[in-house]
Amino acid sequence: MTKRIFLALMLAFAAARVSAYKLTPYIPEENPTGAGVIVCPGGSYFWLDKATEGRGVAEWLCANGIAAFVLEYSHGGWGAFAFHVRGAGRSFPAGFNDLRRAFAEVRASASDYNLKAENIGCMGFSAGGHLVMHAAEQLAGTDEQPAFVAPMYPVVSMTHPCTHKRSRRGLLGEFQSKAMRDSLSLEHHVPAGCPPVFLMNCDDDPVVHYHNAELLDSALTVHNIPHQYEHYRTGGHGFGATAAKTTDEAIQWKERFLAWLHGLLGTKD
Question: In what side-by-side order are the strands of the sheet with 22-26?
Fold first, then answer.
């Protein structure tokens, strides 16, 4: 009986909704570009790396005169990961809806944050990279379209052999239809009006196979989408903007991104 009660409690914990939505602003004293970046940490759609890929990235952007907003979006949670259950409200499209809500809130408060509404984009890491790129594809050509998108060592495909299966399970749950997998494979759905993209990954990534980013780069190229692909031999995964967690080669992405963004917005860095 005790084991049954324990199991019931664990299943209830795993299935409980994660009320994840939280948006934390990091606002610089001066923002000459009027740019804002919604930052989406990674975590396989099961958890969020709030420290390295959230706060650390936001503080770096803020120190360089760019407003940042760390989004804690809906995700499966540790219980769902451990017990292989799907919690109501956690899986797709919960995270996507959270990102849309974040865009709406930041744009509505643009003047309060010294932002230009037309200069607000998003950056995501790993599963967060999948989230922001999916949003860019789905919102292209609408009033909600981001100004730019930066998927960093991203999860991309849900159908290719290089698929990161843990992220797919976190996004779609245990039982996934072929149609849903296809619809969330980013390489198949790049629209003609996709916003500009800054893409980065490393060949030695031990978590998300580097071919994910190559698939996206190829799709962006085929559809003539303005983008910059930073492709490093070494660097690993999960380092965000923290030099101590990666190589001297890969951390160059920070300066490359700033130069790319200033070029995109027509400002000097």
Answer: 22-26, 67-72, 36-40, 120-125, 149-152, 197-202, 227-232
**Parallel/antiparallel/unpaired status of strands 22-26 and 36-40:** unpaired
Closest alpha carbon to 20 in 170, 136, 134, 157: 170
CA distances from 62 to 26, 65, 72, 74, 105 (A): 6, 5, 18, 25, 19
Which whole-number Å values give the CA distances from 159 to 20, 94, 135, 152, 170, in the listed order?
27, 21, 19, 20, 15
Torsion of CA 47, 51, 53, 54, to 10 degrees: 90
Query: What sign does the dihedral 169-170-173-177 (CA atoms) show?
Result: negative
Convert the pLDDT of each residue in 167-207 to its tens digit.
999 998 866 789 999 999 999 999 999 999 999 999 999 99
- DSSP lists the bridge partners of residue 152 as 125, 200
pTM (2 decimals)?
Answer: 0.90
- What single string gives the DSSP state of each residue in 82-139? HHT---TTTSTTHHHHHHHHHHHHHHHTTTTTT--GGGEEEEEETHHHHHHHHHHHHH
Q: How far is CA 176 from the centre of its chain?
A: 21
CB 61 within 8 A of CB 262: no
